[in-house]
Amino acid sequence: MDVKKFLGALPPKRLELLKPLLEKGEDEKRDLGAILGFLASLERALAKAKEATGLHAARREGLESVYRARKYVSDRGALVKPLLEQVALLLPKV
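Above: the chain sequence. Below: its structure as tokens.
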């Protein structure tokens, strides 16, 4: 997924962009590697945005939501969809 496009979108569009990550494969499991890669890319992009503009409260809260999602997404029984939706809703538009 294009992280710049995701960060530049408004929350409703972001939720739509998450749909491919939330789809389950033939084995009824989500691609955890793709999800973790996406979250890591978001974290890097936010770090670059932080260097350019300073870390405001909204960016800090968004960065914390990315951290939480990365921390818990691989837990057994994790609710992946709400974790990613929280990220989409809390990240500021960059």
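Residues 3-90 form one domain.
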